[in-house]
Amino acid sequence: MASSVISPAPTSSFINNKKDLGSFCFSSTSQFSVNKCKKLAVSKKIVSVMAPQQSERRPATTGSVKNAMTLTEKIFSRASEKPQLSPGDNVWVNVDILMTHDVCGPGSFGIFKKEFGENAKVWDREKIVIIPDHYIFTSDERANRNVDILRDFCMEQNIKYFYDIKDLGNFKANPDYKGVCHIALAQEGHCRPGEVLLGTDSHTCTAGAFGQFATGIGNTDAGFVLGTGKVLLKVPPTLRFVLDGEMPDYLLAKDLILQIIGEISVAGATYKSMEFVGTTVERLSMEERMTLCNMVVEAGGKNGVVPADGTTFKYLEDKTSLPYEPVYSDEKASFLSEYRFDISKLEPLVAKPHSPDNRALARECKDVKIDRVYIGSCTGGKTEDFLAAAKVFLASGKKVKVPTFLVPATQKVWMDVYTLPVPGSGGKTCSQIFEEAGCDTPASPSCGACLGGPKDTYARMNEPMVCVSTTNRNFPGRMGHKEGQIYLASPYTAAASALTGYVTDPREFLE
Amino acid sequence: MVTASSISFGANTTFTSSPIPKTKPLFIPHSLKFTTGNGRAAVTFQRAVSVIPKATSADSRATKEPTATFHGLCYVVGDNIDTDQIIPAEYLTLVPSNPDEYEKLGSYALIGLPATYTTRFIDENETKTKYKIIIAGGNFGCGSSREHAPVALGAAGCSAVVAESYARIFFRNSVATGEIYPLDSEARLCEECSTGDVVTIEIAESRLINHTTGKEYKLKPIGDLGPVIDAGGIFAYARKTGMIASRN
């Protein structure tokens, strides 16, 4: 008897063609939506699949009866003190943490003073975290001045968390300096489940790995938050990504998010929340979850979330003493679309120039000759990213064929690179393995060349060349030169490519 | 469809084009005051519990329609023009709230476009653009949250962008700063218009006229954004409508 493929149950899984590589279907909670596999869609530009909202017969709300909400909606609900809300509602939200850095801080402070007065005080000196990280190790006068502007403001406002740097010649001489803001926020315990974290940086969405709402805002919005502690936001609908299956040992979270962005395009999640669930996600470490959420903005996403669990709580144990209350999507919550992936079928990927959604299999790019490799940034410069790269170099035992730049994201990551033993190496540290492989010496922690920066930035691409990078964007000119070609990849793939001088699938070394 | 034109400053917020009378909160039960640290009442908000009703009472002023029209040359770009192309990262050391640096930012607008764009947005040795209007494909302004992007365009002399769609942070920043009008087209105008075409945008009529080709196109209505940008961004608008106390 033929079984019906369209199941009326809202949360059933639809056809999941396991024969197809990385195939998925999007399903919706609507009874009459068509079940189709993405493979049928030819156009690269995603026409938003908005499943018609299921028209439920809602029971009369007497106050205690609530409609099902997604994780993100619940955070909005708590932060706006509205027990009931839906995607599309504009609400005033209380901000738990506001972060800014050296590029956008000065502008935000300028607006704050202009609008609230020269003598105005910030809404809460303990909820603002100021992290210089973008243009630090440079002789550019304006860049250096911008760090001074941060300091002046922090002193004047008595800001509790300012990760200052004064001695640019020796990052270790600065006890407060951390490095890349998104990693510092996590390492310093500023990310907590259920909270609202805003930052003047698009990759603020990284913090969603902790089950909180985190998104990037501009200077004007930040100036507003500085004065009031509130922001007007529209509640986003949620796209759900269910990642199941055992993660092969040649894949990393970077491959997962490249897969997803390649699937839905750089505008596929515009104005939407991306929720990551499934057995694969549950087994990811915090740093891997951060990588996943980090590139949500590359799909246009407003925020990304991974529900908090034992892994989250354990990570936070020694980092924060502030109480927090995680929230979770209700079983009957409405999602705009649901995508399912069988991770065990995926292969290492790259995003070819010049777009993060220009997805290709790493092995299909093996004839692409490269000029350099860059391992760093909030996306791919964390401790586990370096351990991963070291694993590949160790497995090979050979030297890299192209200049390989290593930029730890924070002071702590730098320390880990120099102290943590790499499994299976007989006690060697990452730094030793990198040195034996002929990589460049790990550099001072900062955002580095991920976004080019001032001309004297370490590893900046000042001529047209081909680079495999563990960073997050590869639009024209991203790392400096307009004709530079950037292949975004996981640390495994980046290390493998360094060893051959071509874009290389890491299975060449890991299997 | 959730598009970039459905911004936060929409119909359900207290930012309407009819100024809310300070003495008579007619329809919003809760008034929320919060102060800055020095005790000065900085912002007064009223929680939107219900949708703001259309102006029906006799004493409410008629909704002020944005009457802006823009006329000038248009500059056409494609899809996914990201913030690095609009203002490359090396120029981000310029602080937009500093007047000299604001002007300098403008001089670098769209300098990141690849060489395939044979006509520059700003001519060499110039600091302002001759193109008042930018026409773009989809996902304009994707990438970074840097507010320097809409600021650079506005500082360069651009008044409006007409795109097929926007990335959300760029769109939000455009409205918040009041630097440029981000308008949504209904069709793919980047394929219909060419750089150098003379165009007129009529905001009130939601229309773009290309005088060079003789064709007219519908735009999505600007709605509540208009007054916010007209006033000069969210802070200026909030002051104008009595949401925030005036500065001394």
Strand order of the largest sheet of chain A: 2-1-13-10-11-12
CA-based shape of chain B: globular
List unreliable stretches of 5+ residues of chain A.
1-53
Q: Indicate the structural class of chain A.
A: alpha/beta
* Rg over C-alpha atoms of chain B, rounded to the nearest angstrom: 19 Å
End-to-end Cα distance of chain A, whole Å, is 43 Å
Number of helices of chain B: 6
Q: What radius of gyration of chain A results from the CA coordinates?
A: 23 Å
Distance between the termini of chain B: 43 Å
Considering the chains and any ligands shown, give keywords for the structure.
heterodimer, A: alpha/beta, Aconitase, domain 3, Aconitase, Domain 2, six-stranded mixed sheet, 15 helices, globular, B: 248 residues, Aconitase, domain 4, 2 domains, seven-stranded mixed sheet, two-stranded antiparallel ribbon, 19% strand, disordered N terminus
Structural features, described:
The complex is a heterodimer of chains A (511) and B (248). By secondary structure, chain A is α/β, with parallel strands linked by helices. Chain A has 15 helices and 19 strands. Chain A is globular. Chain B folds into two domains: 7-51, no CATH class; 63-240, Alpha-Beta Barrel (Aconitase, domain 4). Chain B is built from six helices and nine strands. In chain B, the strands form two sheets. Chain B has a seven-stranded mixed sheet with strand order 6-5-4-3-7-8-9. Chain B has a two-stranded antiparallel ribbon with strand order 1-2. In chain B, a hairpin with a 4-residue loop joins strand 8 and strand 9. Mean pLDDT of chain B is 77; it is low at 1-65. The chains are: A alpha/beta (511), B alpha/beta (248). At the A-B interface, helix 2, helix 3, helix 5 and strand 9 of A face strand 2 and helix 4 of B.
